[in-house]
Amino acid sequence: MSAAAPGTSKAAHGEAGPKKKKGPGALATAYLVIYNVVMTAGWLVIAVGLVRAYLARGSYHGLYYSIEKPLKFFQTGAVLEILHCAVGIVPSSVVLTGFQVMSRVFLTWAVTHSVREVQSEDSVLLFVTAWTITEIIRYSFYTFSLLNHLPYLIKWARYTFFIVLYPMGVTGELLTIYAALPYVQKTGLYSVTLPNKYNFSFDYYTFLILVMVSYIPLFPQLYFHMIRQRKKVLGHTEDYSKIE
Amino acid sequence: MKHYEVEILDAKTKDKLCFLDKVEPNATIGEIKSMFHKSHPQWYPARQSIRLDPKGKSLKDEDVLQQLPVGTTATFYFRDLGAQISWVTVFLTEYTGPLVIYLLFYFRVPFIYTPKYDFTTSKHWVVHLACMCHSFHYVKRLLETLFVHRFSHGTMPLRNIFKNCTYYWGFAAWMAYYINHPLYTPPIYGEQQIRLALIVFLFCQIGNFSIHIALRNLRPPGRFVTLWLFFLPQLGSWLGFTLMTQCLPVAFFTLVGFIQMTVWAKGKHRSYLKEFRDYPPLRSPILPFVL
């Protein structure tokens, strides 16, 4: 769902027009630079891990196990970004960021980690690859933006790669959830039935189906938002080159 | 008597939408809205936001033209608030839903539970009590809406009714499903727990009602002080209901309601404070009432 986080980033605001809000202070900027550098490095580690494992095994099956730990660590670490918005050092919506991060965390822990049988599925590699490339570009984009030295290549990549990576990631995510369904139903994973003293019930199987269905209205909205952002951010630079 | 000229521009495009000449100095914004409505019939007064500044706050209907910081040619900016619906309609709809929906579950109308339970009644007396309390609560709210409430704004955006109804109706259905379920488990501490819960519930219902009456006669800013007093009994009623039914969805509803009330109260607080900064000459005699 959030293979390429939509352009509500502070950097996108900075590109599109004059900054209306005050930027983060010097200390906050330093912290954010460190945060984004660490995250870039982390996802590079995952990328390298995938490549090495592929070369070592000679096939792309079961590569999840070689990057399981750094994936969990760095994807979960992204929860800090919700805090950044809440505190105000990043001018994005807490709700939107929260939704994006939690949907990634949900897929990492509540689906892939929890249902062992899907870990060897190729769909996992599909979304992990999409996430890895997206995040490397995204975090280096933020890093350079914070340092006010954003290479056009990074900006271009941020607003172009998503065209392929976003659908790729969504496909991987949906196939993985779908693969998990029979095991969830068989074992009653994370499900609660009546009667119980809290008078509550929860069917994780139905919940997963609802999650899959929710992609239908949500994915196009996010995707076309990014396309509009792309026109706005990359559009006028194309005009300048035409004038020359 | 010098007459004013009024021009109304679109807040976004700055297009001249309307020009009114020979406007009385003591004309109110409300009257100007009616005049604007005549030239633009699709924008009825309730959906007009008239401001002095394109990004500024909406002027009130009661504001008088000659008391505003404008010259003899006044320029106002217009923003379309979108389709509006009256507060009374919204309240009535959002409160009638839970009342009816809960009863559908209580009477175990077909297609909710397994067919063998259709139209049966629960064997637990607390379930009947819960139904009475829930229904009493919403009947009370409906009556308050009709006879006690005085609403500060007549309308709200149309989309709010869908939002609000989804919230109230959705939660009502969720709670009612479990409380009236054939496999419902009554509270652990039995009669003691239910009795205590009922006392809390009734106490808060009465408290809420008397505050409503007091609230009716107080206008801002004293009104804000009593807002929090209004919220506490609301919260208390639902805590009582949670205890009575020992049902997790009810606890969730209470929690979400509490969070909403806090956010709402904070927002109101901020807007009232801002109001006093912006309009000190009109409000200063009432300032001592603000804590």
TrEMBL record, chain A:
<comment type="pathway">
    <text>Lipid metabolism; fatty acid biosynthesis.</text>
</comment>
<dbReference type="GO" id="GO:0102158">
    <property type="term" value="F:very-long-chain (3R)-3-hydroxyacyl-CoA dehydratase activity"/>
</dbReference>
<keyword id="KW-1133">Transmembrane helix</keyword>
<keyword id="KW-0812">Transmembrane</keyword>
<keyword id="KW-0456">Lyase</keyword>
<comment type="function">
    <text>Catalyzes the third of the four reactions of the long-chain fatty acids elongation cycle. This endoplasmic reticulum-bound enzymatic process, allows the addition of two carbons to the chain of long- and very long-chain fatty acids/VLCFAs per cycle. This enzyme catalyzes the dehydration of the 3-hydroxyacyl-CoA intermediate into trans-2,3-enoyl-CoA, within each cycle of fatty acid elongation. Thereby, it participates to the production of VLCFAs of different chain lengths that are involved in multiple biological processes as precursors of membrane lipids and lipid mediators.</text>
</comment>
<feature type="transmembrane region" description="Helical">
    <location>
        <begin position="32"/>
        <end position="55"/>
    </location>
</feature>
<protein>
    <recommendedName>
        <fullName>Very-long-chain (3R)-3-hydroxyacyl-CoA dehydratase</fullName>
        <ecNumber>4.2.1.134</ecNumber>
    </recommendedName>
</protein>
<feature type="transmembrane region" description="Helical">
    <location>
        <begin position="159"/>
        <end position="184"/>
    </location>
</feature>
<keyword id="KW-0443">Lipid metabolism</keyword>
<dbReference type="GO" id="GO:0030148">
    <property type="term" value="P:sphingolipid biosynthetic process"/>
</dbReference>
<feature type="region of interest" description="Disordered">
    <location>
        <begin position="1"/>
        <end position="23"/>
    </location>
</feature>
<dbReference type="Pfam" id="PF04387">
    <property type="entry name" value="PTPLA"/>
</dbReference>
<dbReference type="GO" id="GO:0030497">
    <property type="term" value="P:fatty acid elongation"/>
</dbReference>
<comment type="similarity">
    <text>Belongs to the very long-chain fatty acids dehydratase HACD family.</text>
</comment>
<dbReference type="InterPro" id="IPR007482">
    <property type="entry name" value="Tyr_Pase-like_PTPLA"/>
</dbReference>
<feature type="transmembrane region" description="Helical">
    <location>
        <begin position="204"/>
        <end position="224"/>
    </location>
</feature>
<dbReference type="GO" id="GO:0042761">
    <property type="term" value="P:very long-chain fatty acid biosynthetic process"/>
</dbReference>
<keyword id="KW-0275">Fatty acid biosynthesis</keyword>
<keyword id="KW-0256">Endoplasmic reticulum</keyword>
<keyword id="KW-0276">Fatty acid metabolism</keyword>
<keyword id="KW-0472">Membrane</keyword>
UniProtKB/TrEMBL annotation, chain B:
<dbReference type="GO" id="GO:0102758">
    <property type="term" value="F:very-long-chain enoyl-CoA reductase activity"/>
</dbReference>
<comment type="pathway">
    <text>Lipid metabolism; sphingolipid metabolism.</text>
</comment>
<keyword id="KW-0256">Endoplasmic reticulum</keyword>
<keyword id="KW-0007">Acetylation</keyword>
<keyword id="KW-0276">Fatty acid metabolism</keyword>
<keyword id="KW-0472">Membrane</keyword>
<keyword id="KW-0444">Lipid biosynthesis</keyword>
<keyword id="KW-0275">Fatty acid biosynthesis</keyword>
<feature type="domain" description="3-oxo-5-alpha-steroid 4-dehydrogenase C-terminal">
    <location>
        <begin position="155"/>
        <end position="291"/>
    </location>
</feature>
<keyword id="KW-0560">Oxidoreductase</keyword>
<dbReference type="InterPro" id="IPR029071">
    <property type="entry name" value="Ubiquitin-like_domsf"/>
</dbReference>
<feature type="transmembrane region" description="Helical">
    <location>
        <begin position="196"/>
        <end position="215"/>
    </location>
</feature>
<keyword id="KW-0443">Lipid metabolism</keyword>
<keyword id="KW-0521">NADP</keyword>
<dbReference type="Pfam" id="PF02544">
    <property type="entry name" value="Steroid_dh"/>
</dbReference>
<protein>
    <recommendedName>
        <fullName>Very-long-chain enoyl-CoA reductase</fullName>
        <ecNumber>1.3.1.93</ecNumber>
    </recommendedName>
</protein>
<feature type="transmembrane region" description="Helical">
    <location>
        <begin position="85"/>
        <end position="107"/>
    </location>
</feature>
<dbReference type="GO" id="GO:0042761">
    <property type="term" value="P:very long-chain fatty acid biosynthetic process"/>
</dbReference>
<dbReference type="Pfam" id="PF21696">
    <property type="entry name" value="TECR_N"/>
</dbReference>
<dbReference type="InterPro" id="IPR039357">
    <property type="entry name" value="SRD5A/TECR"/>
</dbReference>
<keyword id="KW-0597">Phosphoprotein</keyword>
<comment type="function">
    <text>Involved in both the production of very long-chain fatty acids for sphingolipid synthesis and the degradation of the sphingosine moiety in sphingolipids through the sphingosine 1-phosphate metabolic pathway. Catalyzes the last of the four reactions of the long-chain fatty acids elongation cycle. This endoplasmic reticulum-bound enzymatic process, allows the addition of 2 carbons to the chain of long- and very long-chain fatty acids/VLCFAs per cycle.</text>
</comment>
